[in-house]
Specification:
With 524 residues, the protein is α/β, with parallel strands linked by helices. It folds into 2 domains: 289 residues, Up-down Bundle (ABC transporter transmembrane region fold), CATH 1.20.1560.10; 203 residues, Rossmann fold (3-Layer(aba) Sandwich). The chain is 61% helix and 11% strand. The strands form 3 sheets. It has a 6-stranded mixed sheet with strand order 5-8-9-3-10-11, sandwiched between helices. The protein has a 3-stranded antiparallel sheet with strand order 2-1-4, with helices on one face. A two-stranded antiparallel sheet has the order 6-7. It starts with a helix and ends with a strand. The protein binds adenosine-5'-triphosphate. Adenosine-5'-triphosphate binds next to helix 12.
Length: 524
């Protein structure tokens, strides 16, 4: 998806575009209004006082209309920019979420990149439009004063396009480089702030501060490079502006000396004054263009994957899982090869294997988070999806909000139901009666790692899905709590696949678990 002029038009209401255009055209007369009104002066010599008064009133009205249009145009443009900023940030959020982009990249997009697009694209597009309209109006005015000299002035003004044609690509590349280095700043600054405990523990303050400082340095250097290149282009542009004045004068002088096309010095003078507006507008246009070009690559946003955003009905009830000749590679690293497995509804599987063997990868295959490079994974003959399973991961994520918010995730559950489930996982006894309104967030340490994990388990138990995937869920729990939690989860009637290193055999036997091992890129 590209954020371009077409996108802007699509995202703004028609009435707003129409009003902006009207005020843009009316305001566009600013450059020539003085010339038009002053041009009337010779006709005022010796006229009656009534005519003079009429002239004053007319001039006042014209100035009033032009300046009011200018202000209204700016107010409407600001309103349009607000609409565009909101649309852009929403699109960015949907794109980064649906493409499962890394968080730092997504955060960089909605903060830094969005601000840059607003500043160097949306606001400048408005300026480009006003300047272009003003340039057209001034051009028409100049052409009707003296068509030949008018054409010469406009043609010379067009020369100022040349520097931009050379700078365009490089400016676009630098914009993209700047965005990448911004993401790096987010990473290193994230390490610096989130890794506090480990940094302090190993006396690594100097190293980590150097890392974040270096990435800030590099980021600012790229920005400076881009700004310098913009200035260089603008300097070349200014040099062409000199040419855009001197060139037509030279040709004009030649016409004057040789008495050609009835060009006189005074005609040349008045043309220069009017043409100045054309030249200046062209110069501003090029200046804006060079800044806009810096955002070219930033304005390419990965298309939204609508399939991910559509709410998925979980219609599975007694689902069988089938894997047919599945192969999974991460680059050159092969994890599974020719893996075929049938897991009927209600199976209870304990998946074992050394660290890095592919246990999480297997659970992710069934959750649809990892796609096989070859072969198929089918749940009830259809492709797997996260909405079909309950996946409890090693590192649980809790959301900013209350415990009630974290359990219900917007669905309707009564407090009684929620309290019952919290009671089961042992949280009511630990966190008190007013537990549902307790505010938590991912970084606040007002609940422990084990409590977080039990909260996530309670959230899963509230929803009876037919496939439960457990990835080292009790790593943060003590033995007593681990067993209690497992007893609760194991009572779920559906399929359970658990990856864990140590589990009490008696418990496994009680719930009919079979052990499966990962060996030679297969599961036995
Ligand atoms: N997205 C990925 N890109 C590249 N390599 C990956 C990716 N995910 C996992 N791997 C690699 O695949 C291998 C299997 O990883 P996986 O997490 O499935 O192992 P595991 O058996 O769950 O390990 P552990 O018991 O340590 O959690 C590892 O070597 C890991 O580095």
């Amino acid at each position: 998806m590209r954020i371009n002029f077409k996108w802007i038009v699509k995202n703004l209401p028609g009435w707003l575009i129409l009003l902006i255009l009207i005020f843009l055209i009316a305001g566009g007369f600013e450059g020539v209004v003085n010339g038009i009104i002053l041009g009337q002066f010779p006709n005022l010599v010796g006229v009656s006082s009534n005519k003079l008064l009429l002239f004053l009133i007319q001039s006042t009205i014209i100035f009033f209309i032009v300046y009011t249009a200018l202000v209204l145009k700016n107010i409407l443009l600001n309103y349009a920019r607000k609409i565009l900023r909101i649309s852009l940030k929403k699109k960015m959020l949907l794109s980064s979420f649906s493409n499962h982009q890394e968080p730092e990249k997504g955060l960089n997009q909605i903060s830094n990149v969005a601000a840059k697009i607003d500043e160097n694209y949306f606001s400048l597009i408005a300026e480009i439009l006003s300047t272009a309209v003003a340039a057209v109006i001034s051009t028409i005015y100049v052409l009707q004063v003296n068509i030949l000299m008018g054409i010469i002035f406009v043609a010379f003004s067009c020369l100022s396009l040349i520097p931009m044609l050379f700078g365009k690509k490089k400016l676009g590349r630098l914009g993209e480089e700047w965005s990448r280095s911004n993401t790096k700043v987010m990473h290193t600054a994230g390490d610096w702030l989130r890794g506090f405990r480990d940094i302090m523990q190993y006396n690594a303050q100097k190293l980590f501060f150097k890392r974040v400082s270096t990435s800030i340095d590099q980021n600012e250097t790229i920005l400076l490079k881009q700004e310098n290149l913009q200035w260089l282009v603008q300097y070349a542009n200014l040099l062409f502006t000199i040419l855009a004045l001197i060139g037509p004068w030279a040709i004009g002088f030649y016409f004057v000396i040789n008495n050609l096309f009835s060009v006189t010095i005074s005609a040349l003078l008045s043309l220069t004054l009017s043409a100045n507006s054309v030249v200046q507008n062209f110069r501003i246009l090029m200046q804006c263009w060079s800044e806009v070009t810096g955002t070219t690559n930033l304005r390419k946003i990965k298309s939204i994957n609508q399939r991910v955003l559509d709410l998925q009905e979980n219609s599975l009830s007694h689902s069988n899982i089938e894997l047919e000749n599945v192969e999974v590679n991460y680059n050159e690293h092969q994890i599974y090869q020719n893996l075929s497995l049938n897991i009927p509804y209600g199976s209870k599987i304990l998946l074992q294997g050394p660290s890095g063997a592919g246990k999480s990868t297997f659970l992710n295959l069934i959750a649809g988070m990892v796609k096989p490079n070859k072969g198929k994974v089918l749940i009830d003959k259809r492709k797997p999806s996260l909405a079909d399973v309950t996946y409890i991961a090693q590192t649980p994520w809790i959301f900013e909000g209350t415990i009630r918010d974290n359990l219900s995730l917007g669905e309707n559950y009564s407090d009684k139901e929620l309290m019952k489930i919290l009671e089961k996982v042992g949280l009511v006894a630990e966190l008190g009666e007013n537990i549902l309104n307790k505010e938590i967030n991912p970084t606040r340490e007002n609940i422990s790692g084990g409590q977080k994990q039990r909260l996530i388990i309670a959230r899963a138990l509230l929803r009876n899905k037919s496939i439960v995937l457990l990835d080292e869920i009790t790593a943060a729990l003590d033995d007593k709590n681990s067993e209690k939690i497992r007893e609760l989860i194991y009572q779920v009637p559906g399929t359970i696949i658990e990856s864990a290193h140590h589990i009490n055999d008696a418990l496994l036997d009680k719930y009919g678990f079979v052990k499966k091992k990962i060996e030679n890129q297969k599961i036995f």
